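Re: that backbone. Tokens:
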């Protein structure tokens, strides 16, 4: 449904991504951030589903063409640890947000696992973002201050995850409440990566509930 495109980073350099368009004039936009596997088919599928729901969706390729097979966790860890998260957020992800918002449309941000962590960083660091939805991802506490989240936020997490743990999510919730942020978090009786239908961790009921909650949230803040 979508196509691979080139767009400008904030510094003017070219980078690539996958764009699925809603086919509507001035459609709101959503930037979709990959898991640590790279720009997999599943992430492109998220963009396609968002386009069908009425959003122009762009997934920037943070690994510059490298896609890691699901079984190779060592390679995925190598790619993720070599990524400069702050530079990727400030240059590539913000460039994607600016691309979708160039006609004045509101733009949201979502991401999964590693992309969930980048989503939170974007909610802090990208002024053009209007709403953010993170799935089972969180940056280290040293990388951001909860009170600096500038946009409405929705988080989706697993009760059984090793990172972030349920206790860490509770700490995030408490900090957001203390800072009086427009934020909501949901915990699921499903494992990490429950949204990814290409992996054994996929939980259909949790994934559909998370998807509907995300769409309702974006409808409230981007339209």
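Recovered sequence:
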């Amino acid at each position: 449904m979508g196509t691979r495109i080139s767009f400008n980073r904030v510094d003017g350099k070219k980078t690539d991504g996958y764009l699925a368009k809603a086919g509507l004039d001035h459609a709101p936009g959503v930037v979709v951030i990959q898991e640590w596997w790279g720009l997999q088919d599943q992430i492109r599928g998220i963009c396609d589903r968002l386009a069908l729901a009425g959003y122009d969706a762009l997934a920037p390729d943070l690994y510059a063409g490298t896609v890691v097979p699901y079984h190779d966790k060592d390679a995925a860890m190598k790619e993720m640890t070599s990524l400069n998260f702050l530079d990727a957020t400030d240059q590539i992800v913000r460039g994607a947000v600016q691309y979708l918002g160039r006609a004045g449309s509101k733009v949201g941000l979502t991401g999964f696992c590693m992309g969930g962590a980048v989503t939170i960083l974007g909610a802090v660091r990208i002024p053009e973002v209007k709403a953010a939805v993170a799935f089972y991802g969180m940056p280290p506490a040293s990388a951001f201050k909860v009170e600096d989240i500038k946009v409405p936020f929705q988080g989706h997490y697993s009760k059984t995850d090793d990172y972030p743990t349920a206790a860490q999510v509770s700490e995030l919730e408490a900090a957001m409440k203390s800072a009086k942020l427009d934020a909501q978090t949901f915990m699921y009786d499903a494992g990490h990566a429950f949204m990814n239908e290409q992996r054994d961790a996929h939980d259909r009921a949790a994934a559909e509930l998370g998807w509907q909650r995300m769409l309702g949230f974006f409808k409230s803040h981007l339209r």
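Helices lie at 41-52, 73-82, 85-100, 114-125, 166-178, 204-222. The chain has a mean pLDDT of 97.
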